[in-house]
């Protein structure tokens, strides 16, 4: 098990290296750099463009150097936690992103838990009541849930709450807490607002999980061991929890790997609709303004989260399923 | 006696079953799946509408009309002064509040505007080729029909949704085609030759897959210069969507090829001196074509959603191009939506299209699985 984890950890290094190169290339793709955007903005507002100032800015940000040098400057900083300077906001990137990243992770994790709490009972119920009206109801609901993109759901929720309560549901904090330092009151306020993005983000995953769980459980319910257990007089509910559910729940674990990245990237769009103070809106703005270090660092950190998510799910899976654990040691 | 007849009947049934081609078997099984059959019908209908949207739209989708800014949907009615009539609408009258400049609309119930078929409307070009004037429905005589209301500039939302369907639905098809070609070639080569090449390709796919999709899309779309032509942006969007979609297909293809290349018939072809690429494309790929079709059907709705999301964030297609995502940009402003809820109509079309594709793919999957009964 330990060698398995160490090997997977070592594999992360080349992966992250390639990701960082691709990220850097994509960030550099748009013609021009931050300074050209900056100059264009100045000209639009009719201000004078001072060549000397531009030149000094160019030297200061290292934009006059060849790309490999720029990449090296960036990545060698990232490794030790220095993400460089945000051009547009003139602040170190790390100052801008940690709180937002923390909120992004919080939302994703809470959504994951929400998904399980809702999906597992419904999936079990649906499988044990196959082809009953309630099963059809949940199946249909699941399909709708999967077909509705999260941002549309966010829009609908905004609309309904605006219609019924006269206020938007956007944001994660009440006005008085927006800039305030962290305190218990602020945490409680956060919890009050958190359910909207969690529900919006969780619906698609919940719907998918219900379908997977239902299909797996249906397969298991026909197995001879279930018949044996029933013949021995085990009560129906005990039997269910004791054997088939334990087997059927396996994919729930294996899906964390793709659920977490999906949640993180889904949260980017939902955050823009609901105007949440997470990394999504910041990333969009940075991309638009060609704020290279900020955008690059956000993409890089989100990728890191994705890689870690995959790693966690692989470890969990190896832990739950001995076939994978031992297969890994032999190879 | 009856026994014999029954026996004969079952044997002809069996014979029919054994003689049937793979596709015929799939079709029989698919027919049993009523919901999937219905959904396929709807999908075909959607694409027909997308192809003939010019004729079906009652108005020119770009035609502005200040006197109908944010006009609500016109209800099609059957009763006028307690008498049953041919379907008609009441003419809308705009009132502008002199103080707040707010626009309100009332129906002028004194006259009726009957709905006419194949009526002369705004002239248009069918597929940019054939000049035409007749539209499927309309009011004729210069009156405009607003079935689903109008947007801020007084453009007819119903016509715009029909035109948007053309872009949104086709972008899914084109994107999937590109990712299919990439996936089959790369996955096929990787699975067939195996060894070191396979290893490199698989690592590369793993890395691509560990990118969070939406930030990657955002970054790529933000790289599109703002002054590109509509066509170029459209093409670029399909490529961006396809670039990320192909990895899943390549994995499916590779897995199947790995299993199939050990089969005797593949070996036989090799011994006969068939070129390796020909073996791959002619002998191995048809072996899992049905599986591939299912994967593709389920990939199309994902692409439609991706286009909608990106355009909605103003990173994909841009006006004056009309797509469902572009139309939904108007719904970003929650105040506007609460005042003019019909701006959300494009969302309903997106959801129905995606839902129907999912049902169809589900039915196809059941039909393509030779082990299910």
Q: Rg of chain B, please?
A: 26 Å
Overall pLDDT confidence of chain A: 77
Please estimate the helix content of chain B: 55-70%
Give the quaternary arrangement of the chains.
heterodimer
* Unreliable spans of chain A: none
- Class by helix and strand content of chain B? mainly alpha
How are the strands of the biggest sheet of chain A laid out side by side?
1-2
Helices and strands of chain A, in order, run as HHHHEEHHHHHHHHHHHH
Strand pairing plus helix content of chain A: what structural class?
Answer: mainly alpha
Helix content of chain A: over 70%
Strand fraction of chain A: under 5%
From the spread of the alpha carbons, the general shape of chain A counts as globular
Series of H and E elements of chain B: HHHHEEEEEEEHHHHHHHHHH
3D shape of chain B: elongated
Strand order of the largest sheet of chain B: 1-2-5
Largest sheet of chain A, if any? Answer: 2 strands, antiparallel
Largest interface: A-B, 48 and 39 residues
Helices of chain A, by number, come to 16
List the helices and strands and how they pair.
The complex is a heterodimer of chains A (331) and B (373).
Chain A: H1 2-28, H2 34-44, H3 51-61, H4 67-79, E1 85-86, E2 91-92, H5 93-128, H6 133-147, H7 150-165, H8 184-221, H9 224-231, H10 236-242, H11 244-248, H12 250-254, H13 256-274, H14 279-289, H15 292-320, H16 322-330
Chain B: H1 2-19, H2 22-32, H3 34-51, H4 53-56, E1 77-80, E2 83-89, E3 92-96, E4 103-107, E5 113-114, E6 116-126, E7 130-138, H5 157-193, H6 195-209, H7 213-222, H8 230-260, H9 264-271, H10 276-284, H11 289-312, H12 324-328, H13 334-339, H14 345-368
Antiparallel strand pairs in B: 1-2, 2-5, 3-4, 6-7
Helix pairs in contact in B: 2-14, 3-5, 3-14, 5-6, 5-8, 5-11, 7-8, 8-11, 9-10, 11-14
Question: If you had to describe this structure to a student in words, what would you say it looks like?
Answer:
- The complex is a heterodimer of chains A (331) and B (373).
- Chain A is built from 16 helices and 2 strands.
- In chain A, a hairpin with a 4-residue loop joins strand 1 (85-86) and strand 2 (91-92).
- The relative contact order of chain A is 0.14.
- Helix content of chain A is 79%, strand content 1%.
- Chain A has a two-stranded antiparallel sheet with strand order 1-2.
- In chain A, helix 13 packs antiparallel against helix 15 (292-320).
- Chain A is mostly helical.
- With 373 residues, chain B is mainly alpha-helical.
- Chain B has 14 helices and 7 strands.
- In chain B, strands 1-2-5 form a 3-stranded antiparallel beta sheet, with no helix packed on it. Chain B has a two-stranded antiparallel ribbon with strand order 3-4.
- The model of chain B has no long low-confidence stretch (mean pLDDT 77).
- The A-B interface holds A 14-15, 18-19, 22-23, 26-27, 29-31, 143-144, 146-149, 151-152, 155-156, 158-159, 162-163, 168, 261-262, 264-266, 268-269, 272-273, 283-284, 287-288, 295, 298-299, 302-303, 305-307, 310 and B 203, 206-207, 210-216, 218-220, 222-223, 225, 301, 305, 308-309, 312-313, 315, 328, 331-332, 334-335, 337-338, 341, 344, 347, 350-351, 354-355, 358-359.
